[in-house]
Amino acid sequence: MELNWEPLFLGKREDYRSRFGRTPEPSAHYTFASLWGWNVNCAYEWAWDGPLVWIRANRPSRTCMAPVGDWDAVDWAETLPKRWSPGTVFKDVPMGLARRWEQALPGRIRLEPSRGEWEYVHRVEDLVTLKGNRFRTKAQKLRRFVTTYHPEFVSIGPENLAEVAAFQEKWCRVRSCGSEKALEEENRAIEATFRDWDRLPGLFGGALKVDGRMLAYTLAEPLDGLTVVIRFEKGCPDFRDVYQAMNQLFLERCCGAFVWVNREEDLDDPGLREAKMSYRPDRFLEKATVTLE
To answer: Is the C-alpha dihedral spanning 199, 172, 232, 115 positive or negative?
Structure first.
């Protein structure tokens, strides 16, 4: 049976969120807010298939992705060969699903770990308290920023969203987003998220100000009942240690109800990987590229 593909649309937002909530190993990449924001770059489509929703991107090329939903309610030995032909490649597949496919179709699943897509997962408590030698440098940077600038923390909501958007626009000019594809695409996703903020349930955030001037912001959303995802995080490059302060103060002020924080992937960018590893992740949500043979 062929899948019936259609573009994402808001009318099925809550149905999708319900399916996503049943996913045994939820990935930050697949939340509705993430797909909706990045849709401007990726032209996503979805196909509804019993307990599953399959996802694919159409830009820059057609790319099959993992399904969300109750993976354990599916007979994969029957479903995968029926839905997909040999040679199909799936990107961004959580390793828990890839292993289910391996077990269901021995000898027909080829896995290639995609390290650049692994999501960094930390204990919220670790990144709030910054205790011990492994966080000594982070704690020093936080103290230096706070004692130097005495920042004001403010929550993000409809009343100041325009101010945050203006900060993002300025940040993008300073960083010359238009000349770097990755930054330009991220900026489009951020603009789409700001534009539809009131139609994307669960989003929340915080910002830092010094003498009334905004210096940094963070946007986040719950991944599940225990985990918060950091969606976007930007800081003024003129202020040393601003990112360390933004991270710690946001988690301390807004994320006390969560055990884990998912800081997403590094996309194989060496500088980003070094920065993310410096926060000493507790574990990774591992992913793979999967080929059906």
So the answer is: positive
